[in-house]
Each structure stands twice: as C-alpha cells, then as structure tokens.
UniProtKB/TrEMBL annotation:
One of its GO terms (cellular component) is nucleus. GO terms for biological process: positive regulation of transcription by RNA polymerase II. The lineage of its organism: Eukaryota, Rhodophyta, Bangiophyceae, Cyanidiales, Cyanidiaceae. GO terms for molecular function: histone H3 acetyltransferase activity. Pfam families: Acetyltransf_1, Bromodomain. Residues 377-450 form the Bromo domain. It comes from Cyanidium caldarium. This is histone acetyltransferase. It is found in: Nucleus. Residues 1-15 have a biased composition (Basic residues).
C-alpha cells in the first residue's frame, strides 16, 4: 500500500527583502504562501528550508511585445508575463542567492578583498584563511600556502562569518595573483570550511572574486584546478578551453601535476553578484517575443466536465488553432510510429489522427487496448493499482493532498468503456505512466509499491 511519504522541510524561514548594498538592481517581491525549497541535485548537504514565496525583479525594464496575439475566444484572457513565470522561489539557485544576499545585508557574512599591507587586521584575516586552505587542501605544502597567502603581490577574497557570540571567523576564501599588465588573475587557492561547503558560499565567493577582478580591470581568470574541483569550476563559468593568447599567460602560471588549467572570461555587462535578476529579465524578454508568434499566454475557459464524453479535441477552447497536419507523429519512445522526412511525418500524423477517428479503426484500437489492459490487470504487480487509492484503508491519509492527478486501472477501464477517450495509444499510455509516476513520487525509491509500479511499467511498455 502507498505509505505516508516523509515531507521535507523545517519550520525555519528565510527572509528576502531589500536590495543588496551598493546595488540598485535586485529586488524581490514577497508572495503570500510559503513552501519547501527543493535543493538542486548534487548539493546534498544543503539543508532544505521552508521559504516564503517571492518573485525576483528583472535586472532591467523588459520591453513588452509590440504585437502580441490577442485573446479571440469568449472568456479567454491574456496572461501577464510575470504570471506566466510565477514565483521564482522554487528555483534552488534563486533561493540560495536570496539567502546569501540576506546574510550579507544582515552583516552575518562578509566578503572582503585583503592584501598583506602589514596591518594587524589584514594579517589576522590572512592567517585565518591560510588555516582554512591548509585544512581543505591537505596536498599543498604548508610553507607554500603560507608564502603565497602572505605574499604582497597576492590578494585574497576572504569570507568572514559572524558567529552568534559576535566573533568573526574566516570560513573560506580565494587567493589570487593579479597580473594587471597581462589582463588576468591566477587563482592559486580556493576553499570553504568543511562544515559550510555545498551551501552556495563557494559560488558567492567566486562571484565576489569576479567582481573584484572587474574592479582591477582584468578580463580573464585562470586557475590550475584540482581534478576533483573541475566540476565546481565548470559551474562557475570556467572552461578547459583557454582563449587567452599563450604569450599573455605562459611563463606566469605555476604548473604542477594532477591539475587542469581552466579559464573564465569575464563579461563586464554581467553583475556576477546578481545573476537571478539578469536571468529573469532574459526569460521575460523571450516570453514577450513569444507572445507575438504563440498563443501560450492565452488562457481559455475550461470545458464542462459533465459534457466531457463526446467532446472532440478540436472543440476544446484554445485547440481550434492547432493545425493537425503540423502535429508531430508519436515518438519512437512511445513504441509507436516514427516518421521519415518532416513533411512525410506531418502528413502521416494527420492520416493517423484521421484514422483514429474512423469508427472501425477506433473499435479495433479499443479492442487491442482492452486486451492489453486485461493482461495488465492480471499481472502479479498490479494489485495495488486495481482501484483508486483508499486513504483510510491504506493509511495514506495525505494521499490526495500529495497526488494531484490520481490514476488507477479501474479509471482507465472506465475511460476505455466510455469509448471516446482513448483516441490513440499515447493517451492510454500517458494514463498508465501517470499511475506509475504517482506511485513512485508518493512512496519514494526502494519502497515495495514503487518496485511493483516499476515492474508493471516494464511489463506494459513491451505491450503498448
Ligand atoms: N565537485 C563537484 N561539484 C562540486 C564540488 C566538487 N568538488 N564542489 C562544489 N560542487 C558543486 C556544488 O554541488 C554546486 O552545484 P549546484 O550549483 O549544481 O548545486 C556548485 O558546485 C557550487 O557549490 P557551492 O555550494 O557554491 O560551493 P562550495 O561552498 O561547496 O565550495 C569548493 C566549493 C570551494 C570547491 C569547496 O567544496 C571546497 O572548499 N572544497 C575543498 C577544497 C577544494 O577542492 N578547493 C579547490 C581546489 S582547486 C584550487 O584551489 C585552484
């Protein structure tokens, strides 16, 4: 039976108000509800938090579509671009950015460019940073690390965290050697304290380092990355392809074994500390342009579910404009036809759709689907899916709160009996797949219901 799935999230809330100091660009607008923040795969250690829904303000005013397609159906309306995008707080890179900004605004975290100028403050910070590097980069000889960190030609972006007692501790940093005449900076060491890793600080550290490089008038960052840090650097915009002419860097970079030379080209139009507002503006611009060629922004009135039976697809509001000759044929992944050239594909799709409307062909299709459905229902793994989930009987009391589009074999049978619903195999297959997806999503990997669902899917995939 489906079991109650562990819901993620804690009661901790992050606030996201106000602009970043020194920047007029980014703003976030709060929404009413709060929800759980799904972390990005790969950032496993990041705690999941419940965050208040919010929208990011675009970095620049977005020009509106000049000639958007207008609603042309009674009751239809055009959605605003903002509403098409909805809240941004479901994007993990946005929530991380907002959290970092909020921490910096509250003074809990600071990033400071520090050079050994002999001052006590600089020496204390650089000593703290050297200790982080020694712990996080154990293969690096200690004297070498100390020499570079305290070298007066090197500079470091230090990440300083204020502890609850008020004490300030260096939690990470990036040590680099700027070569102003050559136009680049070489990153020598970069690390975040073990207990603060994979929470987004490494990204923020790099963003501050890039902004500092822009201040210094540099165009490139180069680094000899440890093999195990190559993936991190790639995510920060570094590449193994070096575009900087060799005469500008060869002889300046220290080369050693087990490293990969990587380069990041700086773009002065990008505010690296505020990427989400920039992406938001780009996304909105694209949607505005799309409004001139697509109807994706038009919301049509729904159909009366009581009249569902016998409603033809083309009678559904909003679908009248679809040119059936341009509907792509079912994909090979669905186990059905795959066409040849695109023109042939379109006409074969139209022919297929017309054929599926033919009563004789439709009857043949339903007979075939019924045979498959009988086999599915008699399969040993089918028993949990024979009828709709009963929350009381199964103990899955929140099932219908979690699963918004339930599906089961009895409903599929009823749809098949109705005669007009499954006009092709893809719709039938989509219902089966939804049933399996619900089971997997609700129960999670490794659960026996998930395994039964997947076994059933393997079975019917070879039949439909
Ligand atoms: N391998 C693969 N991916 C990584 C790694 C890694 N070693 N470290 C971080 N990432 C990914 C994260 O999963 C995250 O991905 P996402 O954006 O898709 O979620 C992304 O990189 C950014 O992660 P952050 O949380 O911003 O980075 P973090 O705070 O963990 O700092 C750092 C990254 C500095 C590499 C840290 O893990 C660290 O100190 N590691 C040990 C020291 C080290 O290896 N330093 C680099 C040596 S090379 C040199 O110094 C030139």
């Amino acid at each position: 039976m489906p079991s109650k799935r562990q819901r993620k999230g804690t009661s901790k809330k992050a606030s996201h108000t106000g602009a970043h100091p020194g920047s007029a660009l980014p703003e976030v607008k709060r929404e009413g509800a709060s929800r759980s923040d799904d972390t990005t795969p790969g950032s496993g250690a990041a705690p999941e938090e419940e965050v208040e829904d919010f929208r990011v303000e675009p970095a620049v005013p977005v020009p509106r579509a000049l000639h958007p397609i207008e609603p042309d159906h009674p009751g239809a309306y055009a959605m605003s671009t903002e509403d098409m995008i909805g809240v941004d707080s479901h994007l993990s890179y946005v929530t991380r950015w907002a959290r970092m900004r909020a921490e910096e605004e509250r003074g809990e975290v600071q990033f400071r460019a520090v050079r050994n100028d002999g001052s006590r403050e600089a020496l204390v910070l650089l000593l703290g940073l050297k200790n982080v590097f020694i712990r996080q980069l154990p293969n690096m000889p200690r004297p070498y690390v100390a020499r570079l960190v305290f070298d007066r030609k090197h500079e470091s972006t230090t990440m300083i965290k204020r502890l609850p007692g008020g004490e300030e501790v260096v939690m990470g940093g990036c040590c680099y050697r700027p070569f102003p005449e050559q136009g680049f900076s070489e990153i020598a060491f970069l690390a975040i304290s073990h207990n603060e890793q994979v929470r987004g600080y490494g990204t923020r550290l790099m963003a501050h380092t890039k902004e500092r490089a822009k201040q210094l008038g540099l165009t490139h960052l180069l680094t000899c990355a440890d093999n195990n840090a190559v993936a991190y650097f790639k995510k920060q915009g570094f590449s193994k392809i070096i575009t900087l002419p060799p005469e500008r860097w060869q002889g300046y970079i220290k080369d050693y074994e087990g490293i990969v030379l990587m380069e990041c080209v700086l773009n002065y139009k990008v505010d690296y500390l505020n990427i989400p507002p920039l992406l938001k503006a780009q996304k909105m611009c694209l949607l505005e342009k799309l409004k001139e060629v697509s109807r994706s922004h038009i919301v049509y009135p729904g159909i009366d579910v009581k009249q569902m039976r016998g409603v033809r697809i083309e009678d559904i509001p909003g679908l009248q404009h679809i040119d059936l000759t341009k509907v792509p044929p079912p994909t090979a992944a669905h186990g059905t036809r795959s066409g040849g050239a695109s023109g042939a594909k379109a006409s074969s799709a139209a022919a297929a759709i017309a054929a599926e409307r033919d009563p004789v062909q439709l009857a043949a299709l339903h007979k075939e689907l019924q045979q498959v459905l009988n086999q599915i229902k008699s399969h040993a793994s089918a028993w949990p899916f024979l009828q709709p989930v009963d929350p009381q009987e199964t103990g899955a009391y929140n099932y219908y709160e979690v699963v918004k589009n339930p599906m089961d074999l009895r409903t599929i049978q009823e749809r098949l009996d109705g005669g007009g619903y499954y006009v092709n195999k893809d719709i039938f297959l989509a219902d089966l797949n939804r049933m399996v997806k619900n089971a997997v999503d609700y129960n999670g990997p490794g659960h026996y219901i998930t395994e039964l669902a997947q076994s059933l899917q393997r079975f019917y995939s070879s039949k439909v």
